[in-house]
TrEMBL record:
GO MF annotation terms: hydrolase activity, acting on carbon-nitrogen (but not peptide) bonds
Record's signal peptide: none
PANTHER family, per the entry: IMIDAZOLONEPROPIONASE (PTHR22642), PROTEIN LONG AFTER FAR-RED 3 (PTHR22642:SF2)
Pfam families: Amidohydro_3 (PF07969)
Start and end residues of each Amidohydrolase domain: 8-455
Classification via SUPFAM superfamilies: Composite domain of metallo-dependent hydrolases, Metallo-dependent hydrolases
Gene3D superfamilies for the chain: 3.10.310.70, Metal-dependent hydrolases, Urease, subunit C, domain 1
Highest taxon of source: Bacteria
Protein name: Amidohydrolase 3 domain-containing protein
Amino acid sequence: MDEEIELLGGGMVCPGLFGAHEHYLHGLFGALNQVASLAQCATLEAVRLVLVDQLAHQATGTVMAVQWNSANVPVAALTRDFLDTVGGGRTILVWDQSFHACVVSSSMLRQLETRGFPPRIKGSNSNGYLTEEYAMFAMAWLEYERDHFRRLLVSQQEIFFSHGFTRIADKDVLGHGLLGALVEAYDDGTLVLPCEGSIQSWMIEDGVRPLSTDNGLFNINGIKDYADGAFGARTAACAPHHYHGTEDTGLLMRTPEQLQRLITLAHRHGFGRVGVHCIGPEAIRLLAGVYTKALDEMGGDASGVILGFEHFEAPDLATVQAVAKMQRAGVPVEVVTNPTFNSDIGVYGDRLDETVLRMINPYRTFGAEGLIVQAGTDGIPTQNPWTSMGWAVDRPAQFGEENVPVEDAFGMYADGTLEVGKPATFIITDRDFIRRSDEVGQVQVRETWIGGDRVWRRGHK
């Protein structure tokens, strides 16, 4: 007991964190040295050298590169033909910095088609270039041995625990390989972090239905889809002139009818949640209209289906007010945001008009309008929720006074409360981040406890 008291030191005991938008998939992008970074590559030759080095380092398997910066290496320069020349038949995937676009080699395209790559997706390929959900299909069919999958998942759970997550929502359980590995690992006790999972609708067409492991720790009960792309890939749906120097308005990937079908699918197959990726103001407005119309047709009752906005990154004021009104009326509407993307506000000055930059994660406006939001990290550019909270507290002031107190930032992640007489789920931090709010982004978790059991302790395996 003395050791535990000493360990607490100047830190805090507080509720654990719920990551409302996380991904076990991110275990594929860093574990076991199976990734190359192109963040510093300013020329195509520099990209080639990095890939050649990774090919030599990784003798077999899929070679993946991340953090391709489209501001330095033009989209048109990275092609399937280029990757084929570099790889000589090896399978290569190159992701942009937002993970919402990728270029794939011919061998990967063949793998996707062989394994059921949906025909409607094939048309998205332009010399190997795939965007948004289409890019996600490249991850869905990555092939790993089950033991390799298990190591990746255990490594990812360790990352979640080290940041103080005591519950997560995995918003892209993609591919039968990943889903099968997750079910097996939860069933045999390898994974113990409570997880609510969502799948894309194509997996419903493959026969996947809501499921739960016997211990109740892992559940698939949600459908995930995409209304638009991302600012990083210049595919978030905006109004004309929101992107500098072009008439580009991004990418609206779904019609209202297609989004409405998701709600129908959820009702038909027993799913309890529909969540749609929406980043740009036009996509958010479109989705709000779809949800409003659907509720009107159902007499204001979603019949047990939660309607979710994923990201909700750059909404206009009228849409914020409309969604807040739905919440006050008792409509089951969830808004999940990612404060870490505040770090992009300055970075995206090269492509976005200031009116859009001011819209990005306006948390003070959310509070003023009574909008209830949850938060995740999305793993891009960090999986650390404390870094994410820091960006909510210290949002760049030159783009509007939208920062919030540390209590509000923590509240977007807090996973319940500590109650007397109940098994405790909590974390111990290394500092009092309420009193030292300027240090919230530097918080380190010392211990993570779930249901009365310590599942992680810094410095111990």
